């Protein structure tokens, strides 16, 4: 495949991967902040969550950002697939024996696989919540907002879904462990003094964020 | 003569059009004082005496500086051990009875010539695209001390300039990327005042050539840095990323 | 043919300027009509090819390696001399010139050496401009160090990889011209013959090492920048591929070979560990600044060490013989290379060698570790430091200075040099001899030039440290661009060289015949076996010390090996493929002839000078007893040998060396 003009050189692709990746990381924090409200399973908590969901789907600024988000997800995925495809082509004959563990983290060598798994998860995830919220026939709660909480609670009462969710967060963790610090390197932000800090923050981010995400379905499943 | 016995699994390929395959060779009389290449010499000696085709592999200085030797040994570029090339790898790193895999560098941009020897001319073409300072030979240049260079920058430039162009970075990278090689040259010259006037042009031209050659894309696994016999740092890739970004953004 | 060195008239410091001003030049438009072939892409070849292309000539550059960047210049560690006098220590062009002539034991041509010293400063400026990262001090200025027994600091360096950095500079200049299309690069090509048309070099026959195709390349001038021939000894610090083939073919086509017996043996190399050994590794000369060289005083101790019953550290101080300090109290461990090498050989021959093979001496850092340790303890204000503490502090200092060399040693030998004294032995390192050239670097074949280590010109009988890089770059950047123009001025109307001429047919046929001989010769022994045998003869009888009887034996033995080689060598594979055995066969065949000529030359030179030491010509009495004895009355000449069809029957031509500037004296290091 020829390198398309929009994507430009190998480095341009890196920059876009990094920028979209970092943006998605920021989004994760916002998303997590919203999700953590689910831990409050009281009736008031449920109403608050639904009100929050309404705000997030109707407030113009958030809506505008959400389009950027959709674009980023699609672009990050498309660019990633293209990269993986080209990288595969760069080595048509594989090694009979390759000791990958000797020189790189498992995650760094398997970003495309991890990314693909996350993409699959995203499709299932968005079908279940995002699609339902926008176009599904959702009931209304006491305040007249779409009752997204009920949809979530229903999903997280199914063991297989909770398991899938937790597993996906593990996948996300590995993706972030490499991806977070990698995006800084891609943008050329490397400095003997600051890079170790970025790496530590990356590890913290990559571990804590997915754990908090995973905590919610487990909590809701246990307290269903 | 030593007394180690080894089993070698070596890639044999008679030429660029041959499909190639791994073949097994027992080798005996190996001494732990031998270098890995001397061990292959012993095997080749045994093959020639039997009238068989010896194994082709590239090597020249045998002291770790010319960058001619390669070999992917037991799954690692230049074998186990850090900061050394294959010619500096000694058999005491292995044990009697070991099975050792020996393969050529694997990259679209480094086609196999024969057996373990590959064509790395792609590196020359990247260099020719911009890896230089455009200064002609002249007896009337400015004095070497006319422009002081901070020691820190000179040392950093030297660290990058120690690249021997062996291709271990490409061979070891899961993506087959040549970023460490390209970055080393861009970074060296970007750090020196003599290289600054052409820095933008150089970064753009060398990356363009690198992409044309069919190398993969860097995904910052860091494997190259670990396997690089000269320990060239990822810092230089970051510098290339910065240089290229600045050049792209400000291009007229 | 009488040798004409074409030294320009005038006082020594005006000769080059005068010559440059009076040479003919080729106009820019005409340069485009002229093709130049450069064989070899090391410092000399890379620099020449780049410079000539910048000037406008069409250049074709050849190297046998897979890239121009791999030439063996890359392995030079120490540095490059230049008379910059940045240190204000009294250096000057004249002093560099003087030191080089003296270091060469008065067997170099004064005018060439002066020019070398003169352009040395330009080299540094040129390399800095190219982006060569020389070592700098905290003020951002270029740093210097002192080297190889001279009294000033004039050596520029880039850590222990100066050769690499300079070569990559030349390579980048070359690749810039390749990118522009001004140089056509032929890597993995080996020159197998030079083609002479009407008495002039007009092209080469080269083999494409990948496809095996024999190619003809025509040009108006051919530059050989193909390095030295140290690999005639099989074991040397040269790269495995370093060979004499290009120079030897030129010799057989009429270029005289100058001083073939002048070989430099470097004293500090890692000793041979066994019969499998394929090459030797140099340990930087700088180690001798802090290491003390010794062997046991008692033969029983030496034997016990060889048998593994004792270790070096078991020998008490009183039973150690620091033989360099004993013999040369003034210079001690810092005597020049040739002297240090011979002294090591003398001790080992007497039975005091300290490794399995009996060919190694100790280079011991324990005294330095203790000295530095105490110093550090003082600096750190540690009172009554324990022995362990001193050792620990001392090791840290030694590691700071030589850590990478110690690591390299441990990697190869498998023994920690901090705990056990390093073992070293001399090894072949550089060849001062080479194709005879005049002041213009032209051989006795018009249009055929030789640059760098491939020629004989600047180092006399012994090369000073950090001078090889200087000569390679001087020849390539600053000499040949002028002198080749003087020759090519006649060729502006010649037009492209026709490679269909019968001379090319004939040369190509010789090359193919030879290849076919090897491949069809159903012998039984691999090429390397003959090479090892040749190497052993050369090392034993034409190495660090030579005598008439040994040399005569060597000549007979080499002829014997050569005869057997042609009869019994086995070369596998085909002609039209990548065939490394075939490459080696061709090179060894040439070494087998060169080796004989080296012995003939060594036999002829009945004196000892520099790297050439004839046991019969040593001081027999007085304070200099046992030291080299030059014979200026009879041997102050360059021996230029003409091929007559048999290496043993070469014709000797003498170029008398006259010394107008430097007074001939005996070198003394006592």
Task: Outline the structure in words.
The complex is a heterotrimer of chains A (224), B (252) and C (670). Chain A is mainly alpha-helical and 224 residues long. Chain A contains 8 helices and no strands. Chain A has one domain: 3 helical TM bundles of succinate and fumarate reductases. Chain A is elongated, with a radius of gyration of 20 Å. The model of chain A is unreliable at 1-6 (pLDDT under 50). Chain B has 2 domains: 4-113, Ubiquitin-like (UB roll), CATH 3.10.20; 121-250, Alpha-helical ferredoxin (Fumarate Reductase Iron-sulfur Protein, Chain B, domain 2), CATH 1.10.1060.10. In chain B, helix 2 runs antiparallel to helix 6, helix 3 packs antiparallel against helix 5 (179-191) and helix 6 (199-212) crosses helix 8. Chain B has helices spanning 36-49, 121-130, 151-161, 168-172, 179-191, 199-212, 223-227, 234-250, and strands at 4-12, 21-30, 72-73, 76-77, 99-103, 112-114, 117-118. Chain C contains 18 helices and 20 strands. At the B-C interface, helix 1, helix 2 and helix 3 of B face helix 3, helix 5, helix 6, helix 12 and helix 13 of C.
């Amino acid at each position: 495949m020829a390198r398309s003009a929009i994507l430009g050189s190998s480095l341009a692709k890196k920059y876009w991967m990094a920028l979209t990746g970092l943006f998605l990381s920021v989004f994760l924090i916002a998303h997590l902040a919203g999700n953590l409200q689910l831990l409050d399973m009281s009736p008031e908590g449920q109403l608050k969550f639904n009100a929050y969901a309404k705000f997030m789907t109707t407030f113009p600024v958030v809506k505008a950002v959400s389009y950027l988000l959709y674009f980023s997800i699609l672009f990050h995925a498309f660019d990633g697939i293209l990269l993986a495809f080209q990288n595969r082509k760069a080595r048509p004959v594989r090694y009979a024996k390759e000791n990958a563990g000797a020189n790189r983290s498992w995650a760094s060598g398997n970003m495309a696989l991890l990314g693909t798994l996350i993409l699959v998860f995203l499709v299932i995830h968005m079908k279940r919540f995002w699609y339902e919220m926008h176009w599904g026939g959702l009931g209304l709660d006491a305040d007249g907002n779409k009752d997204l909480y009920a949809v979530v609670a229903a999903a997280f009462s199914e063991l297989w879904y909770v398991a899938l969710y937790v597993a996906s967060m593990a996948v996300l963790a590995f993706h972030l462990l490499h991806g977070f610090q990698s995006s800084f390197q891609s943008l050329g932000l490397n400095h003997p003094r600051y890079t170790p800090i970025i790496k530590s923050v990356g590890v913290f981010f990559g571990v804590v964020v997915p754990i908090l995400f995973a905590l919610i379905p487990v909590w809701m499943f246990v307290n269903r | 003569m030593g007394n180690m016995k080894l089993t070698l699994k070596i890639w044999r390929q008679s030429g660029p059009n041959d499909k190639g395959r791994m073949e097994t060779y027992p080798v005996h009389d190996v001494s732990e004082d031998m270098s890995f290449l001397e061990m292959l010499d012993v095997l080749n000696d045994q093959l020639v005496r039997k009238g068989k085709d010896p194994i082709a592999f590239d090597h020249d200085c045998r002291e770790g500086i010319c960058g001619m030797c390669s070999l992917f040994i037991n799954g690692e570029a230049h074998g186990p051990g850090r900061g050394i090339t294959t010619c500096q790898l000694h058999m005491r790193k292995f044990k009697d009875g070991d099975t050792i895999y020996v393969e050529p560098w694997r990259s679209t941009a480094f086609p196999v010539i024969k057996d373990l020897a590959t064509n790395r001319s792609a590196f020359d073409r990247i260099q020719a695209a911009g890896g230089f300072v455009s200064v002609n030979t002249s007896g009337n240049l400015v004095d070497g001390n006319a422009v002081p260079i901070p020691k820190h920058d000179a040392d950093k430039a030297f660290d990058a300039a120690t690249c021997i162009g062996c291709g271990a970075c490409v061979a070891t990278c899961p993506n087959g990327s040549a970023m460490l090689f390209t970055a080393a040259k861009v970074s060296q010259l970007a750090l020196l005042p003599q290289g600054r006037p052409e820095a933008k042009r150089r970064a753009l031209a060398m990356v363009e050539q690198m992409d044309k050659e069919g190398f993969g894309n860097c995904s910052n696994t860091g494997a190259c840095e670990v396997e690089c016999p000269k320990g060239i740092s990822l810092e230089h890739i970051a510098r290339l990323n910065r240089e290229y970004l600045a050049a792209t953004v400000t291009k007229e | 043919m009488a040798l004409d060195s074409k030294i320009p008239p005038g006082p020594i410091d005006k000769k080059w300027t005068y010559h440059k001003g009076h040479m003919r030049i080729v106009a820019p438009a005409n340069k485009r009509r002229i093709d130049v072939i450069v064989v070899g892409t090391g410092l000399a070849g890379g620099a020449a090819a780049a410079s000539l292309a910048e000037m406008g000539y069409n250049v074709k550059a050849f190297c046998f390696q897979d890239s121009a960047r791999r030439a063996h210049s890359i392995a030079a560690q120490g540095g490059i001399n230049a008379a910059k006098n940045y240190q204000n220590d009294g250096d000057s062009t004249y002093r560099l010139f003087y030191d080089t002539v003296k270091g060469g034991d008065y067997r170099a041509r004064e005018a060439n050496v002066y020019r070398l010293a003169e352009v040395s400063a330009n080299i540094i400026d040129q390399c800095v401009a190219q982006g060569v990262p020389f070592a700098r001090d905290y003020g951002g200025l270029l740093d210097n160090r002192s080297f190889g027994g001279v009294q000033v600091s004039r050596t520029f360096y880039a850590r222990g990889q100066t050769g690499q950095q300079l070569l990559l500079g030349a390579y980048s200049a070359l690749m810039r011209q390749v990118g522009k299309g001004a140089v056509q690069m032929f890597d993995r090509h080996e020159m197998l013959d030079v083609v002479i048309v009407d008495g002039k070099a007009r092209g080469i026959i080269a083999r494409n090492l990948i496809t095996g195709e024999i190619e003809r390349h025509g040009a108006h001038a051919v530059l050989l920048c193909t390095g030295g021939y140290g690999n005639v000894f099989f074991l040397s610090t040269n790269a495995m591929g370093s060979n004499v083939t290009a120079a030897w073919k030129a010799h057989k086509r009429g270029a005289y070979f100058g001083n073939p017996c002048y070989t430099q043996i470097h004293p500090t190399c890692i000793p041979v560990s066994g019969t499998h050994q394929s090459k030797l590794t140099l340990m930087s000369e700088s180690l001798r600044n802090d290491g003390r060289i010794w062997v046991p005083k008692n033969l029983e101790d030496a034997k016990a060490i060889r048998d593994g019953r004792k270790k070096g550290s078991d020998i008490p101080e009183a039973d150690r013989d620091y033989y360099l300090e004993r013999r040369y109290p003034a210079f001690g461990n810092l005597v020049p290379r040739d002297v240090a090498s011979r002294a090591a050989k003398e001790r080992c021959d007497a039975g005091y060698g300290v490794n399995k093979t009996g060919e190694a001496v100790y280079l011991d850092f324990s005294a330095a570790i203790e000295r530095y340790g105490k110093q550090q303890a003082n600096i750190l204000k540690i009172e009554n430091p324990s022995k362990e503490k001193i050792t620990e502090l001392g090791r840290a200092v030694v590691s700071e200075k030589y850590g990478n060399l110690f690591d390299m040693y441990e990697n190869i030998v498998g023994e920690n040099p901090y705990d056990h004294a390093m073992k070293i032995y001399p090894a072949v390192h550089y060849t001062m001899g080479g194709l005879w050239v005049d002041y213009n670097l032209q051989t006795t074949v018009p249009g055929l030039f030789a640059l760098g280590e491939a020629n004989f010109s600047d180092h006399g009988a012994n090369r000073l440290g950090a001078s090889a890089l200087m000569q390679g770059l001087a020849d390539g950047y600053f000499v040949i661009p002028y002198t080749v123009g003087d020759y090519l001025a006649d060729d502006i109307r010649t037009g492209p060289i026709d490679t269909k001429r019968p001379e090319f047919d004939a040369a190509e046929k010789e090359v193919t015949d030879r290849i076919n001989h090897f491949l069809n010769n159903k012998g039984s022994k691999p090429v390397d076996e003959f090479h090892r045998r040749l190497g052993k003869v050369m090392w034993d009888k034409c190495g660090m010390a030579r005598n008439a009887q040994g040399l005569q034996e060597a000549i007979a033995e080499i002829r014997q090996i050569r005869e057997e080689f042609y009869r019994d060598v086995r070369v596998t594979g085909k002609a039209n493929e990548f065939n490394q055995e075939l490459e080696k066969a061709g090179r060894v065949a040439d070494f087998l002839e060169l080796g004989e000529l080296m012995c003939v030359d060594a036999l002829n030179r009945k004196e000892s000078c520099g790297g050439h030491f004839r046991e019969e010509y040593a001081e027999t009495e007085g304070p200099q007893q046992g030291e080299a004895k030059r014979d200026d009355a009879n041997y102050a000449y360059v021996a230029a040998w003409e091929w007559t069809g048999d290496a043993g029957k070469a014709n000797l031509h003498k170029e008398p060396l006259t010394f107008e500037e430097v007074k001939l004296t005996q070198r003394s290091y006592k």
